[in-house]
Amino acid sequence: MSDIILIQGSLNKNSKTAIILDEVAKILSEKNINFETIDLRKIKMEFCDGRDLKEYNEDLRNSYETMKAAKAYIIGMPVYCYSVSGPLKNFLDITCGTMENKFAGIVCNAGGIMSYLASADLMKILSYEVQALSVQPTVYAWGSDFKDGKIVNLKVLGKANEMVERLIQYSYAK
Ligand SMILES: Cc1cc2nc3c(=O)[nH]c(=O)nc-3n(C[C@H](O)[C@H](O)[C@H](O)COP(=O)(O)O)c2cc1C
Question: Would you state the CATH architecture of domain 4-173?
Answer without folding.
Answer: 3-Layer(aba) Sandwich (3.40)
